[in-house]
User: Fold this.
Amino acid sequence: MAVSKISLGSVKQLFNKRRDLLSTILLRLGLIITLGFIAIALFAPLLQALGLIQDSQDLLGAAMPPYNPINQAPSWQHWFGTSREGYDVFSRTLFGTQAALQVVILATSISLVIGVTLGMVSGYLGGRLDRVLLFVMDTIYTLPGLLLSVTLAFIVGRGVVNAAIALSISYIPQYFRVVRNQTASLKMQMFVEAAQALGASTRHVLTKYLFANVVQSVPVLFTLNAADAILVLGGLGFLGLGLPDEVAEWGHDLKQALPALSTGIWWTTLFPGLALTLMVTGLSLLGEGLSELINPRDREGRG
Assistant:
């Protein structure tokens, strides 16, 4: 009686195929969630202009109507209820997406530009400049990100740009280290040495020959840092160091809603918290999916 044998290679191939399928599903799910929040941020002002949703800054005691009731449970008039200040929670939740994306995109873009630029220069030139930048970046990297952001937010003050600056500092070393290491390894390749032999300037080598090769992992870092930045922004808002009080921001709204939670008023914490969790989850899934797609070698190494 013949006994069938399954080779180790077949098992590994089957395992990798199933893992690829799961990675694709998670990537698509993360992309759908992220695009959904982007659509909300883009169309919320239009929906407000059409009168379909209320202004996120309208509250009880305003000079002009509507005058929202305080702590009203979800209803047809206020889908997510109202807060103790009289804000419409549904409107605040939607416009909180806009505030989160504005700060997070600006913060991650600042850290990306600075980190990638310094990483390429440091890795290519080496020497004393490389040692100094490594020391500075390692020092920043060892500091807790939330503590650093809180300290900077306290110094620079509240606002979209100020909050983005406070968030961006802690992410610069991540881009720097990845790009610096890849640049240092690629500058010894023959195509770079050939360009140097032909008299190409440092700027020309960095922009034309190295840039496209060292930024392959940057999209993964960007999405993962964006997910983390949303959590940190929520923490700053909860501590009163994020955006101005009248601006819809999930962390600040959670802080305002927390005292009423023990009295059974659950809707003022549930919906902002759920929106924050979903957005972080979507960006995290998108980042992990991009990592599997862009860096298959890392996946094989883990296997």
About this structure: The first helix runs from residue 8 to 49.
